[in-house]
Design goal:
Keywords: Lyase, Transferase. The chain is built from five helices and seven strands. It is α+β, with helices and mostly antiparallel strands.
Amino acid sequence: MHTPLWVFGYGSLIWHPGFPVAERRVARLAGWHRSFCMRSIHHRGTEERPGLVLALDRAGGAHCDGVAFRVAEGAEDETLAALRERELISSAYLEEWLALSLEGGAEVTALTYVIDPAHWQYCGGLALEEQARIIAGAVGGRGPNCEYLFNTAAHLSELGIGDADLEWLAARVAELKRP
């Protein structure tokens, strides 16, 4: 484990880290992009009706803006255990230590969860309209899939690092959810 322990958030960790945070900084991860490329069968969907959650999918020339969290000193072991329980629930994510560029120019190595493209839950390349229809209808153990999308899109926008695909999806899912 690297110390201090940094964790990269690009989805729900941004608005619900679930561990003691000493510092949070906007950060960029090169070579990866944020995508609804993972079927969710636990938190935001079920095995019968999977939802979609965000994952980092490797892509040359791409980047993902998110948040780097420095874990409070002394909470590293419990944080690592909690993150593994939360993120590795179905083994579709891989745990990687990746270099991040923090806003202001510093670099850190951060614990980052990326998609395993060989895992059956991987579904990269879905059209945005198909993603919207799946997200609008799915519900899992942590609630409606659309709440996950809306919260993530809103928090990225508040941080000044909005994601055009997520903003389009949020608008389209809101439209699909209207009676």
